[in-house]
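cron nightly-structures :: item 1 of 1
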Amino acid sequence: MSAQGRFSYGHRGVRGLPDRGFSGEIPPALESELIGLSHSKSFPSNTIIHLAGDAVYLLTRGGVIEEGGNWNPLLRGPGDLLGDIDLYERHAGSHFARTIMLRTSCLVIPAFRLRHFAEQRPEISAALHSALAQHVLRLGVWRAVDRLSSLARTAWLLLELSEVLCGWGCPAGLVVGVNQAQMAQLVGLSRASVENELRTLRGAGVISTAYRKVQILDRDALAANIPTEFMM
């Protein structure tokens, strides 16, 4: 899959659920039923939320950094479910801290209603299993990022961030609202290393930078710094 195909998605349906992640697996005919089980909620940036295990949050806009225990930080974006692990093993993921990176909107679905819906609708059950598998796979990839060079980590993170931000309506390839210290924390580098790699990419004409903003100018050239197994 090309870098453009991997890191782009849109919204679909009357209510505009993201066409990726869990919601991307749901047949359009069942979207209204799923929405009927939920209520909307929004969070401002820099909020920390903890889930109690009695509900899951389907992200429709924004971005969340999920971290806790022995897990590496993980970016969750539009279409992802927060609390999906708890559906299968109660409170297994409830110790995770979710930091709202950007102003975020979501659908709050009571866990018992979603479980019942999945029992009644095999398509929903299949979507949940697929979403959980992708979640676990992404956790493994984020943990394995530590093996990459600092340049590869930085390039990979820029593509990940651009995916999440695209779901909030940012132009394709634009990374805003994240400073170098936060980027360094996400991929286990020093701020100086991130600054140096951004300078390298900028000098190669792959990106341009401004205060708290990175514009990806050449996705293919940026993705060329990343081993193919990390391009999920």
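cron nightly-structures :: done
The longest helix spans residues 122-144.
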